[in-house]
Amino acid sequence: MTELRSEFPALQLTLDGKPIAFFDGPGGTQVHGSVIDAIARYYTEANSNAHGAFEFSRRTDATVSSARAAMADFLNAERPAEIVFGPSMTALTFNLSRSIGRTLSAGDEIVVTRLDHDANVAPWVALEERGAMIRRIDFDPADCTLDMDDLREAIGPRTKVVAVGAASNAVGTVNDVAQIAKWAHEAGAWIFVDAVQYAPHAPIDVQALDVDFLAFSTYKLFGPHMGVLWGRYELLDALPAYKVIPAADAPPDKFETGTPNFEGMAAAAAAVDYLASVGRRFGKPDGDGRRRAEIVAGMTAIRSYERMLVERLVAGLQAIPGIHIHGITDPARFDERMPVVSLTLEGHTPEEIARRLDDRAIFVWNGDFYAVRVIERLGLADAGGLVRIGINHYNTAEEVDRLLAALGEIAG
Ligand SMILES: Cc1ncc(COP(=O)(O)O)c(C=O)c1O
């Protein structure tokens, strides 16, 4: 899989002669060359508005259809009309929560967690102004896993929505979404899943998970700065959208306010096609050339390659005195984490570490990553938060070793 790195143009750059090691995928991945080509192709061959009576407009309509079909394959959605595009996961989640808010009665409950990015908390907390009661689920700071007993207890007859992350952007924990979906449905509630940090690392099957809504960002998936919301068709259809009169009344259009980002849709489809090509090249697709099977094979190959890198990273970090990893560190439990590894180093602020790594052309993020409650709960709000290392499939073992050597030098 290491040869894929050469297909990402930005990763070929150097800084002061040093190759760039990009470990900020959780903040936004680099894009594959085919994604850049797709944007250029849209602008040179199809640029126009949708639903017109001329050729470029028909090509734009085809771009939109292809992008929905690609995302439906990526998620195993029942149909492309369940795919809503938007500017970001956050914007789409606010859009959906506003719609759901119109259906709530005072005293209805919404469950959120302290392990989530604020994009999956604030849109739900905003519904307090409609009389919703918010119940917050804690996590165990020792290994950063959700308190599942507390979660189960919090879901009751008044629960309308359970909002959970598939994986934490701060500490990498993977949640048991299928189990939480079961509990939500037993109580007659909907489950909304933030899959932003899950989508780039493993296959997603919304039908097998049996969830109701799921959102992620294509710019963390080797694609453009955009968001995707999937919802069960009948739910999207029934929910009241905030829309202008001429916009279509049916999903997904009724949730896509204004003229959408068509070049982004072209690019998002290219990103999915790239992941299918990873399946053809590095996996064993079991379908007869079906893109869904190729995507699953690609994401499965990515999951196992990244697992090898995360094992190397975590073992290397544990050998550096003064480093504390926040999250799961036992390799036997690595199915429960994504390759998003966060740490603190005694005697050094996260910002200082990120800057000193930048001097070596190694890019990592530091701070709270908008996972404000996670950082508070870990007691790091006044200490500058965490240093976060995000591994993607274009990273290599050599880059991990370079990062470990640099952290070893910084630690002294
Ligand atoms: C877990 C998680 N959820 C939501 C978001 C927000 O995504 P967007 O920037 O598309 O709104 C992020 C961004 O970092 C994230 O990591």
Describe the structure.
The structure is a single chain. By secondary structure, the chain is of the alpha/beta class. The protein is built from 13 helices and 17 strands. It has helices at 33-45, 55-75, 89-101, 122-125, 148-154, 177-186, 206-209, 233-238, 262-282, 291-318, 350-358, 372-377, 397-411; strands at residues 14-15, 18-19, 21-22, 83-86, 109-113, 133-137, 139-140, 145-146, 159-165, 190-194, 213-217, 227-231, 323-326, 340-345, 362-363, 365-367, 386-390. Strand 1 and strand 2 form a beta hairpin. Bound molecules: pyridoxal-5'-phosphate. Pyridoxal-5'-phosphate binds at residues 26, 88-90, 117, 119-120, 165, 169, 194, 196-197, 217, 227. Pyridoxal-5'-phosphate (PLP) binds next to helix 3.
Main attributes?
412 residues, 16% strand, globular, binds pyridoxal-5'-phosphate, alpha/beta, 38% helix, 17 strands, 7-stranded mixed beta sheet
Tell how many strands the DSSP assignment holds.
Answer: 17
Give me the oligomer status: single chain
Rounded radius of gyration (Å)? 21 Å
Q: Specify the overall morphology.
A: globular
Q: Within the largest sheet, what's the order of strands? A: 4-12-11-10-9-5-6
Rounded average pLDDT: 97
**What is the number of helical segments per DSSP (H or I, 4+ residues)?**
13
Q: Structural class per helix/strand content?
A: alpha/beta
Catalogue the unreliable spans. none
- Content of β-strand: 15-25%
Topology pattern, helix = H, strand = E: EEEHHEHEHEEEHEHEHEEHHHEEHEEHEH
The major β-sheet equals: 7 strands, mixed
Helix percent reads: 25-40%
Associated small molecules: pyridoxal-5'-phosphate
